[in-house]
Amino acid sequence: MEVFDKELAADAVKNAIKLGAPGFDAIKQLILCRIERRPAHLDLSSYPYLPKPNAGKTRAADYSALLEGAAA
Which element (helix H / strand E) includes 25? Predict the structure, then answer.
């Protein structure tokens, strides 16, 4: 977001999540492909040994455990 337009970056993040590839490299690839008006190639079938990404939703309760240690 320091280099690219905020809306362009937000769209790339949404697309990366839909594609199951919510990493920095995938997002950057999606942004560059959109700027260059070319299709993105994010096919990971050639890399079966890579772990599948798992990006869950953030729960407020998850932060409670972190804050308990900070109170001491």
Answer: helix 24-35
